[in-house]
Write a structure and sequence with these properties.
Strand order of the largest sheet: 1-2-3
Number of helices: 10
Shape: globular
Order of helices and strands: HHHHEEEHHHHHH
Mean pLDDT: 87
Largest sheet: 3 strands, antiparallel
Structural class: mainly alpha
Low-confidence stretches: 1-14
Number of strands: 3
């Protein structure tokens, strides 16, 4: 039984001073989709800075965020076993997510993006992982961080630092803005809502045909067509100078 006279030692942490507002991210309501110019500016910064600890991982991630609309951890948390090279395109399986709809496949359809991902996969197979948990990951060098020990913790910090170092105004977009851009592009391309949701991992629970029966069906053709439409609407892959590796 709780003694009402015993003071909660954490009560001072739970109270706010009168008139004090809850702390919020001042950019929260101002964030918008990222433009191609902004994304290529970030990519160029990464390519030119060989001192970046995770330079190649950052470069590959930005390129893939642009053409998939994935969440950051959906890219940097992948294992090599999640990636299926089908020749003309590469399928990335996302087997775990905070929502059921988030468990999906995304398709890399651009030739240059496929070549870059193949390069990253080859390097991942020979590089020394930073910890045993990173064995078999696409980005095995990235340290795991945060309460749930995810690679997105430190990679996200590195990408945010790079964003803040850009010369132009960078206060109105972040890494999630790549996802906003992809959704907007799919809408502008006239892709059906159900197909859009399958591609970006949003729920189709109001459509029983998609949410229940289609789970048992082969949807690769629909998903592939959706990512081709996305790629076309975006104007193709991001363009930047190649990564300048650190001199030995």
């Amino acid at each position: 039984m709780v003694d009402p006279d015993v003071r909660n030692p954490f009560s001072s942490l739970l109270r706010r001073v009168a008139g004090q507002k809850k702390k919020t991210d001042p950019r929260e309501k101002k964030l918008r989709p990222i433009t191609r110019e902004e994304a290529e500016s970030l990519l160029t910064y990464i390519a030119a800075n060989s001192a970046l600890k995770y330079q190649l991982e950052m470069f590959v991630t930005v390129r893939l965020l642009w053409v998939t609309g994935c969440r950051l951890n959906e890219i940097c948390g992948r294992y090599l076993s999640d990636i299926d090279d089908r020749g003309e395109y590469i399928c990335i399986n996302i087997p775990e997510s905070k929502t059921e709809a988030g468990k999906r496949s995304v398709m890399i359809v651009g030739d240059d993006d496929c070549a870059l991902l193949r390069k990253a996969m080859k390097k991942a197979a020979i590089v020394e992982p930073s910890c045993p948990e990173n064995e078999g990951r696409l980005f095995p060098r990235i340290n795991l961080g945060g309460y749930d020990k995810q690679p997105s913790h430190y990679l996200g910090k590195a990408l945010e630092k790079a964003r803040k170092n850009l010369e132009a105004d960078n206060s109105k977009w972040d890494m999630h803005s790549f996802r906003r851009t992809a959704v907007s592009a799919l809408v502008n391309a006239g892709v059906a809502r159900e197909a859009r949701n399958l591609a970006v991992g949003h729920s189709n629970k109001d459509d029983i045909g998609i949410s229940v029966y289609a789970k048992r069906a082969e949807l690769d053709d629909v998903i592939l067509s959706t990512f081709k439409a996305l790629y076309g609407e975006l104007g193709g892959s991001l363009v930047s100078p190649p990564v300048r590796p650190k001199a030995n």
